[in-house]
Amino acid sequence: KKKQSNKKKAQKTIKEKRAAKKAKKAQKA
Fold first, then answer.
1. Given this model, what pLDDT does residue 1 score?
2. pLDDT tens, residue by residue, 1-29
3. Handedness of CA 8, 14, 15, 16 (dihedral sign)
4. Which of 9, 16, 2 is nearest to 24 (CA)?
5. Residue 1 carries which DSSP code?
C-alpha cells in the first residue's frame, strides 16, 4: 500500500513539472 501512494506522488510531480513546462512555453509565446 505504501508503494502505491509513492507512485501516485511521483505521478503528481511529473504532471506538475509538465504543467510548469507548458506554462513557461505559453509565457514565451
1. 63
2. 677 788 888 999 999 999 999 999 998 86
3. positive
4. 16
5. -
CA atoms within 13 A on the CB side of 5: 2
Q: Give whole-number Cα distances, 26 to 3, 8, 14, 21, in Å.
A: 35, 27, 18, 9
Q: Which residue has the cell 512555453?
A: 25
Residue ranges in the chain assigned as alpha helix (H): 2-28
Cα atoms in the Cβ-side hemisphere of radius 13 Å centred on 14: 6
**The C-alpha cell that represents 10 in the structure block:** 511521483
The alpha carbon of 13 is separated from its chain's Cα centroid by a whole number of angstroms, namely 4
